[in-house]
Structure to design on (248 residues):
């Protein structure tokens, strides 16, 4: 396999990388194993990608771990995912701190099972002073829910006379999103060959570079991440301008 790490330009790193970790079920099915076996093996990839991003100097890594739509899966799979989450957060806390990684979560956290919330909040509290990279888990996350939520909060402020409708700017709106303290992702990676957004960070992805990898999430390793970053660095981010304007 080609070595992609040596091709990365440290001066052009994406500050924020978002990932849709997909393909656990298909990975397991190909091995004649239950879907949960795929989820369990996906934890190794989470570790690899977190470590690789922290080592490179990426400041924000946001992983889609459970969508609000994922509640529609068989009950046993949902329960297994929640258990895996609690176990993983508990087990990885020391490593996170050793690597100076701060844990964070976005989504409708209050609607998660109590044990999940507890493990998560403990992890967030224990790592709050780490400043090398912020690792955010999107849990019970839905971008439309996030946007609706922000809209309701703003509407309430207008209703109470605290804000004028004319003052509802993009900056005000952004400040009410779950991601209010992060830059928008520069790069989005989705694994497993699916090419859709699945209700992830709809507002924040407006100008994100999209990268689709055919690799199933449990097989995704550091070099796959490096490959995605090399590909990202070869692109010209024009933000509406012409190529000539950017060269000038
Ligand atoms: C991603 O893998 C993990 C979660 C959505 C929790 P999937 O479970 O979606 O795997 P596939 O897409 O069925 O292969
Ligand atoms: C998106 O994956 C959610 C997560 C990765 C947590 P899904 O596998 O649930 O997405 P769809 O339903 O196939 O679009
Ligand atoms: Mg899937």
């Amino acid at each position: 396999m080609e070595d992609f790490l040596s091709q990365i330009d440290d001066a052009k790193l994406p500050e924020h990388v978002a990932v849709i970790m997909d393909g656990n079920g298909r990975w397991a099915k190909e091995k004649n194993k239950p879907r949960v076996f795929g989820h369990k093996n996906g934890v190794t990839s989470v570790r690899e990608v977190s470590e690789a991003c922290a080592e490179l100097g990426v400041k924000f890594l946001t992983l889609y771990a459970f969508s609000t739509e994922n509640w529609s899966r068989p009950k046993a799979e949902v329960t297994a995912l929640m258990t895996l989450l609690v176990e993983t957060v508990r087990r990885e806390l020391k490593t996170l701190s050793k690597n100076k990684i701060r844990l964070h979560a976005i989504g409708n956290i209050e609607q998660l099972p109590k044990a999940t919330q507890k493990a998560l909040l403990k992890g967030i509290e224990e790592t709050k002073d780490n400043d090398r990279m912020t690792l955010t888990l999107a849990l019970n996350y839905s971008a439309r829910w996030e946007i609706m939520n922000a809209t309701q909060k703003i509407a309430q402020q207008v209703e109470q006379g605290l804000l004028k409708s004319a003052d509802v700017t993009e900056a005000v709106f952004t400040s009410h999103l779950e991601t209010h303290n992060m830059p928008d992702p520069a790069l989005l990676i989705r694994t497993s060959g699916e090419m859709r957004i699945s209700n992830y960070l709809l507002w924040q992805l407006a100008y994100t570079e999209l990268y689709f990898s055919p690799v199933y999430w449990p097989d995704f390793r550091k070099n796959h991440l490096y490959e995605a970053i090399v590909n990202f660095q070869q692109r010209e981010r024009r933000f509406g301008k012409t190529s000539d304007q950017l060269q000038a």
Q: What stands out?
A: Residues 75-98 form the longest helix (24 residues).
